[in-house]
Automatic annotation (TrEMBL):
<feature type="domain" description="DUF1206">
    <location>
        <begin position="106"/>
        <end position="171"/>
    </location>
</feature>
<feature type="transmembrane region" description="Helical">
    <location>
        <begin position="72"/>
        <end position="93"/>
    </location>
</feature>
<dbReference type="InterPro" id="IPR009597">
    <property type="entry name" value="DUF1206"/>
</dbReference>
<feature type="domain" description="DUF1206">
    <location>
        <begin position="196"/>
        <end position="264"/>
    </location>
</feature>
<feature type="transmembrane region" description="Helical">
    <location>
        <begin position="145"/>
        <end position="166"/>
    </location>
</feature>
<keyword id="KW-0472">Membrane</keyword>
<keyword id="KW-0812">Transmembrane</keyword>
<feature type="transmembrane region" description="Helical">
    <location>
        <begin position="105"/>
        <end position="125"/>
    </location>
</feature>
<dbReference type="Pfam" id="PF06724">
    <property type="entry name" value="DUF1206"/>
</dbReference>
<feature type="transmembrane region" description="Helical">
    <location>
        <begin position="29"/>
        <end position="52"/>
    </location>
</feature>
<keyword id="KW-1133">Transmembrane helix</keyword>
<protein>
    <recommendedName>
        <fullName>DUF1206 domain-containing protein</fullName>
    </recommendedName>
</protein>
<feature type="transmembrane region" description="Helical">
    <location>
        <begin position="237"/>
        <end position="257"/>
    </location>
</feature>
<feature type="transmembrane region" description="Helical">
    <location>
        <begin position="186"/>
        <end position="217"/>
    </location>
</feature>
<feature type="domain" description="DUF1206">
    <location>
        <begin position="28"/>
        <end position="91"/>
    </location>
</feature>
Length: 267
């Protein structure tokens, strides 16, 4: 059994360190950056009343699909996101502790799911994050203990948001950058973008989590409608337009940080 585990770890190590995979995976971070920049831009448009589609992954991918050469760019994004997901997946075997292994597995699912959504747009299809969240919530609510499960899911999303805020405030994300670049080699502008970006992303996720909890509490799946609904809810608060602009800019800065991460992160 030990030999089998060691063999799996060695194979995962070899795959995770392969130049082709790591190069493509770095491209995945660039894709994530572009998506967040577009979500931020859409959020600002909503806040200023100058248009804006769905402020979500789907909305960002739709924007890319409509650009010249958009389909080609999306297929390239699919390849990069799959590589990033597979790279994360190797951490299930190579992680030094349970936390690192769990993070690798969870992030692999996130990136591969985004790759699947991107492939839908690349193939000329359409999907909506808001409709997906509502449909999934409705399905769960129809099951025994559905309300409890939805509330738990919402609390998990809130925890993710809080974790992101803490990560930004404490600047703990610097460890990821400096592991590959070395302490002092990461520019202050990138650090500032990371701080603001993580906090803005955390606030958005916290609000999303609250909406999901409320959907479970009221047994109304329409209350849980994805990131777009969370951002629009922020915009409906007192001084909401200003708040939404700040969050939109913050999400865009997180995107710039993600692009920088593609260069500096240790892989």
């Amino acid at each position: 059994m030990h030999d089998a585990k060691q063999a799996a770890r060695n194979a995962a190590d070899a795959a995770g360190d392969h130049p082709a995979l790591t190069t493509l995976a770095r491209g995945g971070f660039v894709v994530l950056g572009v998506v967040h920049i577009l979500i931020g831009w859409i959020a600002v448009q909503i806040a200023t009343g100058s248009g804006g589609g769905e402020a979500s992954n789907s909305g960002a991918l739709s924007t890319i699909a409509q650009a010249p050469g958009g389909q080609f760019l999306l297929w390239a994004a699919v390849l990069a996101l799959v590589a990033l997901g597979l790279w994360r997946l190797t951490q299930l075997f190579t992680g030094n502790d349970v936390k690192e292994k769990a993070k690798g597995g969870v992030m692999a699912v996130v990136y591969l799911s985004l790759a699947a959504t991107t492939a839908t747009f690349a193939a000329g299809g359409r999907t909506s994050d808001s409709e997906t969240v509502t449909d999934v919530t409705a399905t769960v609510l129809s099951r025994p203990w559905g309300e409890v499960l939805v509330i738990i899911a919402g609390l998990v999303v809130i925890a993710v948001g809080v974790y992101s805020i803490v990560r930004g405030v404490t600047r703990s994300f610097r460890e990821d950058l400096e592991a590959g670049a070395g302490a002092g080699d990461v520019g202050s502008a990138i650090i500032v973008a990371g701080v603001v970006g993580y906090i803005a992303r955390g606030v958005a996720f916290a609000v999303l989590g609250i909406l999901i909890v409320w959907a479970g509490w009221t047994n109304d799946p329409e209350e849980a409608a994805g990131l777009d609904a969370a951002l629009r809810t922020l915009g409906e608060q007192p001084a909401g337009s200003v708040l939404l602009i700040i969050i939109g800019v913050g999400l865009a800065l997180y995107g710039l940080y993600s692009v920088a991460r593609a260069r500096y992160v240790k892989m």
